[in-house]
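Lab notebook, bench 4. We co-purified these components, and the gel suggests they stay together. Before we commit to crystallization screens, I want a quick structural picture of the whole thing.
Request: model the full complex, all chains together.
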Amino acid sequence: MSATATTHRLLLADDDVHVRDAIASVFRMEGMDVSTAADGREALYALRTEPRPCLILLDLDMPGMDGWEFRRRQLLWPAMATIPVVVVSGQPEVKVAARALEARAVLAKPVKVDCLLRVVDGHCAHAGPEAGARRLRLARTHAQTSASASRN
Ligand SMILES: [Zn+2]
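Here is the predicted assembly.
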């Protein structure tokens, strides 16, 4: 089995390079693979050419192909349609947007790192532990908490 099969992976699409760098470094420190895209077209290209991500963090307002169009195309692509999307956006109507986009979660910008970690961990903690998948630091903390709780 290849290393990519057991490593959690994020695809992060945001036109702001500072946001991309900040979020990517947080998750790389958690041991995840992170690939980044500056717009919807780059994100689609990443899906086509790179290992499948666990989750897509998607900004909506991007020049070129925006997050709406990316999501529309992703949902029309059977092999990729089931990858959950977490919308990270500064748009005020972001919750409405998330419903329309069938997003797993919505985080308003400026995004809080602990919220971001919780959302990603909430997804990845359930993903393929039998494959020896690496768990996030947060996931291990939760596992230890529930293990000690069940002993009592
Ligand atoms: Zn994962």
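Residues 1-5, 128-134, 138-152 have pLDDT under 50 and may be disordered. Worth comparing against the SEC data before the next meeting. The chain is about 45% helix and 15% strand.
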